[in-house]
Amino acid sequence: MVWMSWTLPTAAFFAGIALILVAMTTWQAISPSVERKGFLPIETTRGDRLFIGLLSSAFVHLGFVALSDVSLYVATALCVLWMCFLMRWG
Amino acid sequence: MTKVENNKAWWLVMPVFLIVAFSAIIPLMTVVNYSVQDIFDPYTRYFVGTEWFKQVMLDERLHDALIRQFIFSFTILLIEIPLGIMVALMMPTKGKGASLALILVAIPLLIPWNVVGTIWQIFGRADIGLFGAMMAKLGINYNYASEPMHAWLTVVLMDVWHWTPLVALLCYSGLRAIPEVYYQAARIDKASRWAVFRYIQLPKLTNVLIIGVLLRFMDSFMIYTEPFVLTGGGPGTSTTFLSQSLVQQAIGQFDLGPAAAFSLVYFLIILLVCWVFYTTIMHMQKDK
Fold first, then answer.
1. With an 8 Å Cβ cutoff, is B10 touching chain A?
2. Is the pLDDT of residue B75 over 90?
3. CB contact under 8 A, B275 and A55
4. Could you give the dihedral angle defined by the CA atoms of residues B81, B83, B88 and B89, in that order, rounded to the nearest 10 degrees?
């Protein structure tokens, strides 16, 4: 594992992503997702909304890094809120 | 009757999953690890947080390379897609001519990238190249090594020459799949050539064009070898695209941290653009 140069934050990040994927798969197995239309202009499944949420969160974090000196925890907190909003009403 | 759910077949996907894990996911994870560290050697590395990302996002050279990259990708798409359709429409459909045309059109696709770069490097030279000599005869002082516009023209021409055949072949296969009855109906209605194209051929080509646009966008957005061989990114930095900036940073200067951060930003941009393309096109089809 030395060659992969792990650090604690990156390990935590990937563990988080893996947990989300496992949780989403379990949720899908228990109650399959149905495409629906929320405030997004397209019909989406839970997985689509998760993808949109993660991708937009990545860009929000990049924006925070590039344009401000505000702590990244603020960006993460905003993204968690955005993610919840998107998953429920997207 | 209730449908029996049997998900055991998913186990058959496991080999593919393992291969993808080793060829894509693990290297990507490693890149993420590199992007937050300053690496001197495998045992000496320091955690630097998001410092490389900040540096990369504020780097003027990379902004310029990104703008050039988008201009390049959209230029070649604007040329290659209509041109590919035109070539496909003009290719013979029956007899020996059809096979010959297919082979002739496919030739540029069989040539390795670095050879394509070399071919055009020689082709464009005013002293020994046909294209360069022709431009000189026409009284144009054409020199792709010193004039940015000429370098751009050559890189775009080269990509169009190399990759229009792919679009043409995709469209050709799409056109062959249209049943003859559609054309018969069009003849009975005395439809014009344009009407046949607009209402029969183009709608039937949508699927192959989706693949064509996506493939060409992704490939052109990651273009490296041909401009590297042809112009080396010059004159100056006028044809330095994203991948070449990345290679300069990663291999030329061995700045693994910034290069990894740059790769991730690059990856996210490609992911976003492809997702937007894919979703738009899939929804256009659904609405039909």
1. no
2. yes
3. yes
4. 110
